[in-house]
Every structure is written in structure tokens, then in C-alpha cells.
Sequence to fold (350 residues):
Amino acid sequence: MMPPKFQLLALVLFALAMLFIENQIRKLEESRAKLERTMARFELREVEQRQNRDTVRESPVLSESDDLLIIYNRVPKTGSTSFTNIAYDLCAKNRYHVLHINTTKNNPVMSLQDQVRFVRNVTSWKEMKPGFYHGHVAYLDFSKFSVRAKPIYINVVRDPIERLVSYYYFLRFGDDYRPGLRRRKQGDKKTFDECVASGGSDCAPEKLWLQIPFFCGHSSECWNVGSHWALEQAKYNLVNEYLLVGVTEELEDFIMMLEAALPRFFRGATDLYRTGKKSHLRKTSEKKPPTKESISKLQQSDVWKMENEFYEFALEQFQFVRAHGVRERDGELFVLTQNFFYEKIYPKVN
Fold:
């Protein structure tokens, strides 16, 4: 028999030995688990890389963000040049293409064959994706041509009388964008008020009929002056087919909201508009505000009432969208961050 003190020492040593062995076993198990996780991640990465290589080899498609298309079918004299220059200034930095749609004699209506050509070009021209297309073209419904992905439409509208006055003087005096270019009505010194008083054709109420048909589209009824069907169709398209429609008077807010919604294209646009020289590039020369009498005479026409109804409809929709996406703090507007999240996700993942 061993003396009691040696027995106690032996038990202590045995216990220490067991603890040491258990600790080593635990470390080995942790190392094995770590190694298994590392191998699993490596295998997963290998599978993903192999799938990516196979995908590229089988179907060289663009990523979702690079497949985006924006069409800005700009209405004349609504501040479209100022906004378009923002897109040109950002395209290299944000890696997208800008293309101007130049139609013969600035005709906003395309022939049927040109509609087909345009839709095919825009949707299949991979080298020009992502792309920002702009031009004085009426809305074109891509869904009629059985394409898989429709472009994102945006636009800007303006008070109809202010737009007409700006266009009237633009045809006679041009602007500060290309001051040397001779305009169609150059040399005509008659003011807008004089034109209204004499019943001239360039200031007739029918000349107000432009924003409605641009949003209505390529149907013949869209271009029938005073068509109530065209007005309702323009409203429908504005709400259902356009991502955002701004107003000239609040162009900065329009740009800020686009930057928040589509940073792939418009990252940096708000600062560029506020500080860049091109943001206020184009201003109509020699423009004189109309008198109350001229405005009142135009406002008596049914065409003005319809165009103004459409403008106010667009303004209300824009202010509604802005109210749900923008807040004011210390006199400055800021865009709200993401205000939704996901929960109760099933089935549960271990």
C-alpha cells in the first residue's frame, strides 16, 4: 500500500493528466471544425467561380445594374438642356453611356418602322448599356414590341404659359448656349404680348398643346388638340409608366430624388447641379414676361385649361413622391434612408 500522501499526489497527477488530455482533445476538435469550415468555404468559392465561368461562357449577359436603360423624352423648353448636361458630366465617372435621339426636323412622332428599329436598338445594343437616351420624342410603349425589359422613363414638365413664352422668344433670339446660331424666327421683333393682342399663330392657344401629347404617345388621338382622351392617357402614362416626373421650377429636388433612387446613374448629380457651371447653362435671350392681360386671354382657352390640368396633376404627383422621400432640416432638404426591413423569414436557417 502506498502512503496516503502519495495516493493523493497520484490522484492529483491523474486528474491533471486527464484535464490536459481533454483540453488537447477539445483543441483538436476545434482545429478540425475550423479546418472543415475553411475547406467548406474554399469548396463553395470553387463552385461559385466554376458557375460564374460557365455562365460567362454559355451566356455573356450583363449584370442587373449594367443592364439599365433610361429614356428622357424631353419636352422642349422645360430646362431639359440643363438637366441633360448633368448626365453628360457624370457619364464617364459613373460608367454609363449618353445618347441623343435626333429625329428629322425634330419630329416627336416616329414612323412604325422607326419605332421597331429604335426598340430593337435600345434593348439589344449591349455595348451602350447602361444607357441614358434623351431627345424630343413622344412616349413610346415598349411593351407593344414584346421585349423582356422595359426602359425607365423620366421627364420634366413646366407651367404651360411659361413654357410657351420661353419657346416664343427662343425662336427669335436663341439662348446663351449657342448664341451665334440663327433661329427660325430671327429678325421678328414682335413681343409675345403683341403677338397675343394681334392673334398671331406663334402664340395661339393651340401652341400650348405639347406636354399632353408628349406623355400620351404615338396614338393619333394624342395629337388632336383639345382631346380629353389624350389628357387622360397622358395622366395614366405619367403615373404608371414613368419612374419620376419633375417640374422645371423644382429641378434641384427632381435631381436629388433621382440620385437617391438611381445612384448608378446620378451619384454626385445634386452637388454638380448646385456647384457646376453647366447646371444653369441655357437661358432664353431677350425674354420678356407676359402681361396679366395676355395671360388672362390664354387662360380663357380650353387648351390652356387642359394643359394646365395636366401640369397641376404632374406637380401634385411630384410633390407627393417628394413628401414621402425627402425631409427638411435647418432649411436644407435631405433624402430619407431606407425605411423598411424584413422579418419573420421562414424556413429558418441553421
Observations:
- The longest strand covers residues 152-157.
- Residues 4-58 form the longest helix (55 residues).
- The beta strands are 69-72, 97-100, 131-134, 152-157, 242-247, 326-329, 332-335.
- The mean pLDDT is 87.
